Amino acid sequence: MDIDIIFRIAGIGILIAILSIVLKQAQKEEQAEMLTLAGVVVVLIMVVQLMNQLFTVVRSVFNL
Fold it and tell me: Which residues cross the membrane (predicted)?
């Protein structure tokens, strides 16, 4: 597993957290919640793709 992926996920988390704080300070709580939800969805998509790669490798190792 590349360390790049971990940094990418952490970067997305930090960026979403900062933007969410800015939106909450601007009295836009609904947009902040939607931004947080969008960030979670993006990270989950990345994790699902990684899990797909993992299962592909496991299948090839065990010839399934």
Answer: 6-23, 35-55
Chain center to CA of 45:
7
Q: Which amino acid is at 15?
A: L
CB 26 within 8 A of CB 3: no
Environment class of 2 (CB within 10 Å of its CB; exposed 0-12, middle 13-18, buried 19+) = exposed
Concatenated DSSP letters of 22-58: HHHHTT-HHHHHHHHHHHHHHHHHHHHHHHHHHHHHH
Write down how long the chain is: 64
